[in-house]
Design goal:
Elements (H helix, E strand, L loop, with lengths): L7 H12 L5 H14 L5 H17 L6 H14 L6 H9 L1 H9 L6 H17 L5 H14 L4 H8 L10 H14 L3 H12 L10 H13 L3 H13 L8 H12 L4 H10 L3 H4 L3 H20 L6 E2 L7 E2 H23 L3 H11 L40 H14 L4 H13 L14 H18 L3 H17 L3 H17 L16 H25 L5 H22 L5 H17 L3 H17 L3 H18 L5 H14 L3 H15 L9 H14 L3 H17 L3 H17 L3 H12 L2 H4 L5 H17 L3 H15 L6 H17 L3 H17 L3 H19 L4 H20 L9 H15 L3 H15 L9 H18 L3 H18 L6 H13 L1
Antiparallel strand pairs: 1-2
Helix pairs in contact: 1-2, 1-3, 2-3, 3-4, 6-7, 6-8, 7-8, 8-9, 10-11, 10-12, 11-12, 12-13, 12-14, 14-15, 14-17, 15-17, 17-18, 18-19, 20-21, 21-22, 22-23, 23-24, 24-25, 24-26, 25-26, 26-27, 26-28, 27-28, 28-29, 29-30, 30-31, 30-32, 31-32, 32-33, 33-34, 34-35, 34-37, 35-37, 37-38, 38-39, ...
Length: 989
């Protein structure tokens, strides 16, 4: 709070503002300051309101020790000045007797006698005030359940009584009934009792989050794993990082531990690290720590006690170390509660949770399934091979020779040999074999650099790959191997040409060229690289056949990539010529793998040139050869290419068959060697064309996982981003949010090492998902933050315009119209630099509607000003020749004028605007897709005319004509709201 309120009006305004803040330390501190301010005024009523706000902040901010102290002041005020408490304040006071009972119960230092004494005080006060005792008996039952006494009588005394105005809400009472049945071992009755809350029919401040956390394990035991998964995703989001719901977080961690989702559990633990230090309620902390220990115990039992874990601040923790710390603290809390209560209930309950065995082997909770081996982010984790890899020789000379032999063949198993050799050579005691067949150490080091460069290229780190190849070439020179050096230099030339091009005259040293200029620059670089390779080839004598074939293949690859970047028909023939040279050489020397490579280059070139039938014919011939003569590891890639060509030919069914076969065959080889991730990505596209989005989603996430394991983190995040958007499109909101939360918590994201625009896209999708999930405040806050960040994107004002426009709409929906107007101004300023006609028009119209809807006639002037701005943008779009994707901007504007004027009570103007919209739309036809929009416009015009202007005689013929028109065209569904409105008008005549 910047300045203290100077009068009661300012105090009430400050109290309202604080009430809109989330519970937590900031809200509590402000509430404390407002009590101090209220005490300066002579009036007791403002002080009562300030004390109510402070008690609420303590209660929901997990500070139970302070809540009873505030209530004692309120009770004293009530006893001394009862007239200060009107009916509403009196109701609030008596309601909060229950808050104090709850607060005292969670503090083990409060004697049991004091708890019972408070309940007696509550009963006496209720009886004196003539209030029903059902709330008192509810608190008495909860105390009995907490202590561990026989609750049968206490439950009947509470549950058998009729509810009163001071009873807990329906949702909270449902939860207590369900927990009673759960404690009795009756999962079925508990779940039946919970159903209204779990279904969302009953809710409150704490529900359904509290009930969901308790219902997860009973649902699993009842065989309803899908329902448990769904509720876990939604329920966790509603309680995470919230100190007053630490117990609920602990039960979600336990759920992860018992469903084979230990990795997700550790991820959620890290997200809730704040709870170790912010939970002031000993009972909530006890529940949280027990859930944490269940998770850590499971991870340690699986042999991963050395993994890092997020725990108490001030030091780093391993799973084993944190588990020991948590166990000691939770055992102490259980002992304190049991000593206070005179039972062993809390120790017994804790032991029961820790002794539970996993309920399912593996339940896929999110789209991002990872094992504990992948928790440490320091290095990419290789995907486990789907087959038994070829044996790697133990003898060092044999290993070196085998690695080189496989590398020449292009065999996938070469990677395993090089990996083992890299480890051996890096060891301090490495001794190189004195064997002429093996060659000098410089040769082996060059070989390893070449393999490292290949892996860097797979990660699109082309500059690094080029540097490594140049270094390898130097070592080959030192070893007296000019042929090897020539191949390494050719690889370096290709990698350097693939690196992002830059134009010093137009860009800074850090800004890559984009768009057509980038394609032209890369094509030129590839052409130059090819020319250098040709010279290198001609100048190198004594090349072995396999080295010459490798150089020809690199030459063809450079020209093929040039064709891909330029799309120039003149670049087709040179690629085919190089492929012919390679084919001839490979045939002459019986190099089977290179023959197949030459055929593959030919087919790919025909595909790039647009000659798809010839490409398919070539690939068919190549597949026949590969199936007969091999090499078999080329089959997945070749089938993938044929699948992509069939996609281009709009034959998605055949494409899926090819890609599925390629994926099946790819299982015989390491994933990174046969581009398994690309196969999954292409299969996702084929599935989308075939109307199988759920299958597409599975392939997208699998592709992303493989890319992440292979170290291609940017590609992986792009694939995950596509998967998240698909989730959102499919209405799988919680899946979308859970996936994005997981990605945004990755170390390279939180450390700012990932591309900021890619991270912004992930956050934008998450904000949209939150909005779709009706978490409006959080969604608006995320978009406002994104709008502030994107304001600095000097190279992309259009994206800033779009983000600021979306932020404005969400602020408007939240009722913050002033801030929404500020966001609109940002969007308009960015739009002036990079037009986004449709997004800005949509934003302005929607904000105008929200203003009129929320403020009525008082908001009409501002709404019309927004619509005038939307009209200006429509004029700009028309002048620029822009065509909207859906209805025209002019039509949409006329319709919105109708709605805005209707909300403001200007019905004649509303009707005129709607008739203009109908004229712009034109009557629908049988094949046209705007029948629904036209029908809605007719319906609104009919409602304005028939209901608000009280002219049903004029409105009914309009509706009848529209219904007749729509029926004649076969749009029967669109007639239903028109028919319903007509019936209403006839009834009111």
């Amino acid at each position: 709070m910047t300045t203290a309120p100077q009068n009661t009006d300012e105090l009430y305004q400050a109290l309202q503002e604080n009430d809109r803040r989330p519970y937590g330390r900031a809200r509590t501190v402000t509430a404390e300051e407002l009590v101090d301010a209220a005490e300066q005024f002579a009036e007791p009523v403002p002080l009562v309101h300030a004390l109510f706000e402070l008690q609420e902040a303590y209660t929901y901010g997990s500070e139970p020790r302070k809540s009873p102290v505030v209530f004692a002041r309120l009770l004293t005020l009530f006893d001394e000045q009862p007239d200060v408490f009107d009916e509403r304040r009196r109701h609030t006071l008596f309601w909060r007797f229950k808050w104090v009972a709850n607060a005292l119960r969670v503090l083990p230092e409060i004697p049991l006698a004091s708890l019972r004494q408070w309940l007696t005080e509550m009963r006496d006060r209720y009886e004196k005030a003539g209030l029903g005792l059902q709330p008192y008996y509810g608190q008495a039952y909860q105390l009995a359940a907490h202590i561990g006494e026989d609750t049968t009588l206490a439950y009947e005394l509470w549950a058998g009584r009729s509810r009163t105005r001071l009873s807990d809400c329906e949702a909270c009472e449902i939860c207590e009934r369900a927990l009673y049945h759960l404690a009795a071992g009756d999962d079925e009755r508990a779940l039946s009792a919970w159903e209204p809350v779990l279904a969302g029919t009953e809710s409150c401040q704490e529900e359904p989050a509290r009930s969901v956390s308790y219902a997860l394990l009973p649902l699993l035991r009842d065989g309803r794993a899908d329902r448990a998964r769904e509720l876990h995703l939604a329920g966790y989001r509603n309680c995470r990082r919230n100190p007053s719901m630490a117990g609920e977080v602990g039960r979600h961690l336990e759920f992860c531990a018992l469903t084979g989702n230990e990795t997700r559990g550790l991820e959620l633990l890290a997200e809730n690290r704040n709870l170790f230090g912010e939970v002031d309620s000993p009972l909530d902390l006890f529940d949280f720590l027990t859930g944490v220990e269940v998770l850590l115990q499971r991870v340690e039992l699986l042999g991963h006690g050395e993994l890092p874990a997020a725990g108490y601040a001030g030091r780093s923790w391993t799973v084993a170390g944190l588990r020991a710390e948590v166990r000691g603290r939770a055992d102490d809390l259980a002992a304190r509660f049991d000593a206070r209560n005179g039972t062993s209930a809390h120790t017994d309950r804790r032991r029961a949770r820790l002794d539970r065995a996993p309920l399912v082997d593996a339940l896929e909770l999110t789209l991002r399934t990872r094992g504990l081996d992948e928790v440490t982010p320091a290095a990419p984790v290789a995907a486990p091979p789907a087959r038994t890899a070829a044996a790697v020789p133990d003898s060092l000379p044999e290993l070196i020779l085998r690695a080189r032999e496989l590398d020449v063949q292009g065999h996938p198993d070469a990677k395993a040999c090089w990996a083992k050799l890299r480890t051996l050579v890096a060891a301090g005691d490495y001794t190189h074999p004195d064997d002429p067949a093996v060659g000098p150490l410089a040769q082996l080091r060059a070989d390893l650099l070449g393999d490292e460069a290949s892996r860097a290229g797979d990660r699109n780190e082309f500059a690094e790959a080029a540097a490594l190849q140049e270094e390898a070439a130097g070592l080959y020179d030192d070893a007296g191997l000019p042929g090897h050096a020539a191949v390494a230099r050719a690889c370096a030339l290709l990698a350097a040409a693939e690196a992002p091009a830059e134009t010093p005259a137009e860009t800074s040293a850090e800004t890559p060229v984009e768009g057509d200029a980038a394609a032209e620059a890369k094509a030129a670089a590839l052409g130059a690289a090819h020319a250098s390779m040709v010279r290198l080839h001609e100048e190198t004598a004594g090349l072995a056949p396999h080295q010459e074939a490798r150089l020809l293949r690199l030459r063809a690859t450079a020209l093929g990539m040039r064709l891909q970047n330029s799309g120039n028909e003149e670049h087709v023939a040179p690629v085919l010529a190089e492929a012919d040279l390679l084919h001839a050489l490979a045939t002459r020397h019986d190099l089977g793998g290179q023959i197949s490579r030459a055929l593959l280059i030919r087919a790919t070139t025909h595909a790039l040139s647009g000659d798809l039938p010839t490409a398919v014919t070539g690939i068919d011939g190549l597949l026949d050869r590969l199936r007969t003569h091999g090499p078999a590891w080329y089959l997945p890639h070749t089938l993938a290419l044929r699948g992509r060509i069939h996609l281009a030919l709009q034959d998605a069914r055949t494409a899926r068959a090819d890609l599925a076969e390629g994926l099946r065959l790819a299982a015989d080889w390491p994933a990174d060697a046969v581009e398994t991730a690309r196969l999954h990505s292409d299969l996702a596209e084929a599935c989308m064309h075939l109307g199988s989005p759920d299958e597409a989603l599975r392939h997208l996430t699998r592709s992303a996982e493989l890319q992440l394991r292979g170290g291609s983190r940017t590609d992986a995040y792009c694939a995950y981003s596509n998967a998240a958007q698909l989730c959102l499109d499919l209405g799988r909101i919680e899946d979308c949010i859970a996936l994005l939360d997981s990605l945004l918590a990755e170390p390279d994201v939180t450390a700012g090492e990932m591309d900021d625009r890619l991270v912004a896209q992930l956050r934008l999708t998450r904000a949209r998902a939150l909005h779709a999930g009706e978490d409006l405040k959080v969604a608006a806050a995320e978009l406002v933050a994104l709008a502030a960040e994107s304001a600095g994107w000097e190279d992309d004002p259009g994206s800033h315009a779009m983000i600021a426009a979306e932020a404005a709409v969400l602020l408007g929906e939240s009722g913050e119209l002033g801030r929404a107007r500020e966001a609109v101004d940002q969007a308009l300023a960015a739009h002036a630099r990079a037009p986004r006609y449709e997004q800005l028009s949509n934003c302005l119209r929607e904000l105008a509607r929200l203003q009129a809807e929320q403020l009525g006639p008082d908001g009409l002037a501002d709404s019309l000003a927004l619509l005038a701005e939307a009209g200006r943008i429509a004029d700009e779009a028309r002048a620029a020749g822009y065509e909207a994707r859906g209805r025209s901007l002019d039509t949409a504007l006329a319709y919105e004028h109708g709605r805005v004027n209707a909300y403001a009570g200007e019905y004649e103007d509303a009707l005129a605007a709607l008739e203009k919209a109908l004229a712009l739309l034109g009557e629908p036809g049988a094949e046209e897709d705007h029948a629904g929009e036209w029908a809605e416009c007719v319906r609104l015009a009919g409602a304005v005319e028939g209901i608000y202007l009280e002219r049903p005689a004029a409105a009914l013929p309009r509706l009848a004509a529209a219904v007749s028109r729509l029926n004649a065209l076969g749009h029967t569904e669109e007639t239903e709201p028109l028919t319903a409105l007509a019936a209403r008008l006839r009834d009111e005549e």
